[in-house]
């Protein structure tokens, strides 16, 4: 029996020892059975599906406080010295 794997190479299982050929055939049949299962991926919601259900607060576009900006720069003010974490 021959199998075409990923449409790039055909393997002739009759050249292999019987236990190995049987194991490969079992794996391939399991793979084929699982490949035909329906996908459980959720469909992408349409654009605008949250329109009117959620709003950004007015403060969203205001500049961040200096202590928050310093955290993005790796500065830590919790020890009172203004140094970064070790």
What's the arrangement of strands in the largest beta sheet?
Answer: 1-2
Q: Please provide the count of β strands.
A: 2
The biggest beta sheet reads: 2 strands, antiparallel
What would the average pLDDT be, to the nearest integer? 78
Tally of separate helices: 2
In what range is the share of β-strand residues? Answer: 5-15%
Spatial gap, N to C terminus? 62 Å
The chain-level structural class is: alpha+beta
Helix content: 25-40%
Mind telling me the C-alpha Rg?
29 Å
SSE order, as H and E? EEHH
What is the 3D shape?
A: elongated
Poorly predicted spans: none
How many domains comprise the coordinates? 2
Characterization of this structure:
- With 86 residues, the chain is α+β, with helices and mostly antiparallel strands.
- It folds into two domains: 2-35, no CATH class; 55-86, no CATH class.
- It is 29% helix and 9% strand.
- The protein has helices spanning 18-35, 66-72; strands spanning 2-5, 9-12.
- It has a two-stranded antiparallel ribbon with strand order 1-2.
- A hairpin with a 3-residue loop joins β1 and β2.
- The N and C termini lie far apart (62 Å).
- The model has no long low-confidence stretch (mean pLDDT 78).
Sequence-ordered SSE layout with sheet pairings:
Blueprint: E1 2-5, E2 9-12, H1 18-35, H2 66-72
Antiparallel strand pairs: 1-2
């Amino acid at each position: 029996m021959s199998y075409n794997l990923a449409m790039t190479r055909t393997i002739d299982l009759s050249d292999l020892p019987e236990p190995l050929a049987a194991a490969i055939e079992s794996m391939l049949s399991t793979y084929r059975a699982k490949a035909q299962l329906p996908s459980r991926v959720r469909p992408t919601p349409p654009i605008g599906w949250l329109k009117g259900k959620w709003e950004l607060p007015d403060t969203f576009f205001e500049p961040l406080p200096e202590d928050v900006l310093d955290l993005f720069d790796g500065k830590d003010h919790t020890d009172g010295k203004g140094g970064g974490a070790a």
